[in-house]
Amino acid sequence: MADALDALRLTPAQLAELRDTLAARIREGLTEDEREIRALPAHLPPPPAGLAGEALVVDTGGTNMRAAVVALAADGGAKVVKGPVQARLPMREEGGADIDADGFFALQADLAARLDSGAGLPLGYCFSYPSAVLPSRDARLIRWTKGIDVPGVEGALVGDGLARALGARGLAPCRVAVVNDTVASLLAGAQQAPGRPRDMVGLIAGTGTNMAGFYDARQAPKLAAFPGAGTMAVNLESGNFDPPHLTALDRAVDEASNNPGQQRFEKAVSGFYLPFLLAAALPEAGVDPEAGTGPLVGWRDAGEGRRGEVAGLLLDRSADMIAAGLAAAITTYPADALEVGILAEGSLFWRATGYSARVQATLPSLLPAGRRCSVLRIDEANLVGAAAAALTP
Predict the structure, then answer these.
(1) Among 124, 121, 162, which residue's Cα sits nearest to residue 141?
(2) Are 84 and 380 in contact (CB under 8 A)?
(3) Domains of the chain (ranges, CATH numbers)
(4) What sign for the dihedral angle of Cα 226, 232, 238, 241?
(5) DSSP code at position 168
(6) Helix, strand or coil for residue 375?
(7) Is residue 125 within 8 Å of 58, Cβ to Cβ?
């Protein structure tokens, strides 16, 4: 076990190898479909200068649902003018009734109706489950995750389903754009950050992890299949990266998971899996993985013996690997992308003591020569980004 814990301390050379390996896998995914890094086109350009207007936004992920009306200003400002109102998807194991596809969309439409927004607003639908976005900007659900399994939705167009449910309540939208949370974060950063809006990376580092960026057919040859599309957002699905320098602890957690061999990067760095890694490292310590990452941060901050030490190792490794992942994504950007913004979202990144600072301290040494980056934080980034998607022509 001592060897496994020593292996959690990644050297600069190991982090550089992780960066280079992920950059190569990203380039593969930008060239061909069905690679380890899926690189899913979102069919949305960077928000144009002067983008303004109001949009209805529905944000659904896990068991949580939110709705709001968001106003974007031509100067890059954004404001939630109604809401957000919130609800939970009823879970069968919690006593909730079984629902079908119509019921699923009806719940979200009923939530949106509480805003009294009226008909005709564009709809930005932040739908954070694995989905394939079409050139129409609707999306087809590939598979349910996060404990959700509503029959009749897999394979269906989710934007159309929600638009029909809204129409039945007198709230038919004028158009629909579906995004996931990572692309929404990317768009929010590009809408509000100064400089060239395409030089932006969207990062989620919370319960799970993922990245998104802007690419054109020069960096992403498979985008040539969409003539005239130009630069567009791409959801990398980077959590599925199988990185070098994983340990016996990582292998044990992966083998005990419900999807062995998948999401290896996410299982090494994300808030959901860090408690499982600590429990595997110290089975005698009575760690409850279901309690989340908060206790790990507390034990590390309090210097609580062996448990605090190992928690610190896991949190530091996570931050260093996230930094290497960001450097990999930036490496795939054009050579003239010298100032890159990172819109970071997620409870791990912003709430774990010292985590953001560790990422930002590790990142500069991993960037290509001559490049710099800055980490940005925007309130309600999911809602702002989904509104930008809805309002973009």
Answers:
(1) 162
(2) yes
(3) 53-182+382-391 (3.30.420.40)
(4) positive
(5) T
(6) strand
(7) yes
Q: Which residue, 253, 249, 354, is CA-closest to 298? A: 354
In angstroms, the CA 245 to CA 252 distance is 14
Cα gap 232→368, rounded to integer Å: 23
pLDDT, tens only, 13-45: 999 999 999 999 999 999 999 999 999 999 999
Is-contact 125 159, C-beta < 8 A?
A: yes
pTM score of the predicted model:
0.93
In 3D, which of 209, 211, 214, 244 has the Cα closest to residue 229? 214
Measured in degrees and rounded to the nearest 5, phi and psi for residue 328 equal -65, -45
Contact 183, 127 (CB under 8 A): no
Q: Cα(first)–Cα(last) distance of the chain, in Å?
A: 56
Are 10 and 317 contacting, i.e. CB atoms less than 8 angstroms apart? yes
Closest CA to 390 of 32, 155, 78, 87: 78
* Dist CA 183 CA 70 (whole Å): 17
As a whole number of angstroms, the distance between CA 162 and CA 58 comes to: 9
Give residue 237's identity as a one-letter amino acid code: E
Residues in the chain: 393
Tokens 């908060």: give the residue.
Answer: 294
**pLDDT tens string 127-157:** 988 899 999 999 999 888 766 788 999 999 9
- The Cβ of residue 24 has, within 10 Å, a number of other Cβ atoms equal to 14
Cα angle for residues 342, 345, 346 (degrees, 5° grid): 140
